[in-house]
Design a protein that fits this description.
GO terms for molecular function: structural molecule activity. Keywords: Proteasome. Belongs to the proteasome subunit S11 family. InterPro entries: PCI_dom, PSD13_N, PSMD13, WH_DNA-bd_sf. It comes from Psilocybe cyanescens. The chain is mainly α. It has helices at residues 11-21, 27-38, 42-54, 62-68, 79-90, 97-108, 115-131, 135-150, 157-173, 177-188, 193-196, 199-215, 223-226, 241-251, 254-260, 268-272, 274-292, 302-309, 316-325, 352-384, and strands spanning 299-301, 329-334, 339-345. Strands 1-3-2 form a three-stranded antiparallel sheet. A hairpin with a 4-residue loop joins strand 2 (329-334) and strand 3. Helix 5 (79-90) packs antiparallel against helix 6 (97-108) and helix 7 (115-131) packs parallel to helix 9 (157-173). The model has no long low-confidence stretch (mean pLDDT 91).
Length: 385
């Protein structure tokens, strides 16, 4: 369908009208617009327009400036920058009209020559659809954006960020914790936390990431999240205890976990999944118990595992089989003697206490090596003489 033709720009009339209806603080922008447009300095004009659209006082004037001014020369400027500009304008337009505005801009940009611009606009449109709970339509736009990205050799950080953000938000609505966790971390890898996210956004993202790490049935290694500065946003908030809970799981500490369980009442998802979380902390306790043992002493009795995990001995075999199936450990089960041989433990980020324990074991190993050397060296030297 053909797009409506924008009104023919009469520059002096546009500038005069803008100066008459906007705050004095914005007037220098319009004077610059006129000078740069007249000289056809499209790159510099684009930069000045970004400054304008980022100015808090411009919010009520963004759509008008875009439709009456930018549309006159939109084919002459970088199409990705045009799409990014359009997203900024759309944020100042009430919904769902913003989706219509973005769709109109999408139709005017050639996807073959500016695929990244299409990704930016498709993800912005999907974001609006998610706000109106139209998950199916949003997923269609997200998939289309993903297909465009896969065909590109390289993608700008801002484009990646837009895609992973809306993908994470989609999986959040579906309560697919693992997919939300993965896409959120990819999103965070593309942005500057201080520059690109407000304090409230950082706090909300850290909150939901923490819940996803805990509730995802395939995530038992929180290392990337525990090392990420996004968790600093939880400090001083009502969700600060979630960071402690993450470290508790990472350490496999049943005692610390039980002390935090009463706080689950403030998080409906944790309260609802308390049985699952109990099994998950038991798995982490099993991993930690195996990790603490010397390499030549990785055989554990069912009784020992029951004590370490606070489980009945009848539940131990199922727990070990679960750990083996999830590839958290490798080894074998002796059902007759009720023993488990662990040959490998999934690597993960260690706490200070765990690092201290590892250092002690390395020290003991060095001492044993020195003892062996002390016994063997005199015999070797004697034979050599």
């Amino acid at each position: 369908m053909a797009q409506p033709t924008p009104p023919k720009l009469v520059l002096d009339d546009f500038i005069a009208g803008a100066l008459a209806h906007t705050p004095a603080e914005l007037h220098p922008f319009f004077e610059s617009f006129k000078a740069l447009y007249t000289r056809k300095l499209w790159h510099q004009l684009t930069s000045k327009l970004f400054e304008f659209f980022d100015h808090p006082l411009s919010q009520g004037f963004r759509e008008r400036v875009f439709e009456l001014f930018v549309r006159d020369f939109e084919g002459k400027i970088n199409q990705l920058r045009l799409a990014e500009m359009g997203v900024k304008v759309a944020r100042a337009i009430e919904q769902p009209k913003s989706a219509t505005f973005l769709s109109s801009l999408l139709a005017r940009i050639d996807g073959a020559t500016a695929p990244e611009a299409h990704v930016i606009l498709l993800t912005a449109i999907a974001q609006v659809k998610l706000l109106f709970n139209d998950q199916q339509a949003a997923k269609k736009d997200i998939d289309a954006a993903g297909a465009l990205m896969e065909a590109l050799d390289s993608v700008e950080n801002g484009v990646n960020a837009a895609y992973y953000r809306v993908a994470a938000d989609y999986w959040k609505t579906k309560k697919d914790y693992a997919a939300f966790y993965k896409n959120s971390l990819l999103y965070l890898a593309c942005v500057d936390l201080e520059k690109d996210m407000s304090a409230d956004e950082r706090r909300e993202r850290a909150h939901h990431l923490s819940l996803a790490a805990l509730l995802a049935d395939t995530i038992h290694n929180f290392g990337e999240l525990l090392q990420h500065p996004i968790l600093d946003a939880l400090e001083g908030s009502k969700h600060a205890w979630l960071r402690k809970l993450l470290y508790t799981f990472n350490e496999g500490s049943i005692g610390k976990y039980e002390a935090l369980v009463p706080l689950f009442s403030s998080e409906a998802d944790l309260k609802e999944n308390e049985r699952f979380l109990r099994q998950k902390i038991c798995l982490m306790a099993l991993i930690e118990s195996a990790f603490r043992r010397q390499g030549n002493n990785r055989t554990m009795s069912f009784q020992t595992i029951a004590e370490e995990t606070h489980l009945d001995i009848e539940a131990v075999e199922f727990l070990v089989m679960k750990a083996l199936s999830l590839k958290l450990i490798k080894g074998s089960i002796d059902e007759v003697d009720q023993k488990v041989l662990v040959t490998w433990v999934q690597p993960r980020v260690l706490s200070r206490e765990q690092i201290g324990g590892l250092a002690n074991r390395i020290g003991e190993w060095v001492d044993r090596l020195n003892n062996v050397e002390g016994r063997i060296a005199p015999e070797v030297l004697g034979q050599a003489a």
